[in-house]
Design a protein that fits this description.
four-stranded antiparallel β-sheet, rod-shaped, mainly beta, 232 residues, five-stranded mixed β-sheet
Length: 232
């Protein structure tokens, strides 16, 4: 059995000693030798390996379900048989089976195809090595590696109290911690911290930056003051 691009040639060599009589018995004259030439495809496919990529965590957990990049695959002789992605999380090896398909603008005179992978699920924060293993019909494989780096690009989910009532102290002011306005804010990866500032300026506190505490004073008495609550 042979695969694409593989064939055999039988070449017969005949050597005759012209000075001796022909003989079908030893010593033979002519001497005949049959040479077997096997033309084999023993090279793996050529893969346009992806560059390293950086992705964000999922919105609701501290992992990433990443759609792995598609790749162009070429082979000089054989058809492409399959493509598989391999990666490890906490010492456990996971595999993603890909599919082979055509792609827009493909020149069908060239022996190339598009390898489409699916999602690599539950990639943790940090860098994960991903391997693409591409095999042709003759069993030759090519492995390419690239890094998927997962970072937390998702902002926290902010939840704040809609109304808070405060009392002015004997010195004519009061400082309220930013955390007082929190009503269950959270982040998918880390602890959250709070800042606050008044939305409209008056003589109580500057509004050009956020503070750990917001100040209320006598000019706020009987008024409803809007504050901006920041979660990071």
């Amino acid at each position: 059995p042979v695969c694409d691009g593989t064939y055999k040639i039988l070449r017969t060599w005949t050597a005759l000693d012209w000075c001796l009589p022909t003989s079908a018995f030893p010593p033979y004259n002519p001497v005949i030798f049959i040479q077997l030439i096997k033309v084999l495809d023993d090279q793996g496919p050529v893969v346009a390996c992806p560059i390293d990529i950086t992705v964000s965590t999922n919105p609701f957990d501290c992992e990433s379900d990443t759609n792995l990049p598609d790749v162009i695959i070429e082979d000089a002789c054989s058809r492409i048989n399959n493509i598989v992605a391999e990666y490890k999380v906490d010492g456990v090896t996971y595999y993603v089976d890909g599919t082979l398909t055509d792609f827009p603008g493909n020149n069908h005179w060239d022996p190339d195809t598009l390898g489409v992978l699916g999602f690599a699920n539950n990639l943790p924060l940090g860098s994960t090595d991903v391997k693409y293993i591409v095999t042709d019909d003759c069993g030759n494989s090519t492995v390419c590696d690239f890094e998927v780096t997962v970072e937390d690009f998702a902002p926290p989910t902010a939840a704040c109290d809609e109304f808070t009532q405060v009392s002015i102290g004997i010195d004519g002011s009061v400082y309220i911690n930013a955390s007082t306005f929190d009503d269950g804010s959270y982040d998918n990866c880390s602890d959250v911290h709070f800042k606050v500032r008044r939305m409209d300026s008056n003589d109580c506190q500057p509004v050009n930056k956020f503070h750990d505490q917001v100040r209320f004073c006598c000019s706020d008495i009987g008024d409803t003051v809007t504050v901006i609550f920041r979660v990071y």
